[in-house]
Amino acid sequence: MNDTIFVVLFYLIPIIIITGIGVGVFFISRRILRKQIKSVSTRKILIWLATIILTPILFVGLAWIVVFVWTYYPNKDFNQNDWQANQYKRYEYSASIIDSRILVGRSKRQVRELLGPGEYNADPDTFKYDLGDQPDIFGIDEPFLFVYFENGKVARVEKQWDN
Question: Taking the model in full, what pTM does it have?
Answer without folding.
Answer: 0.63
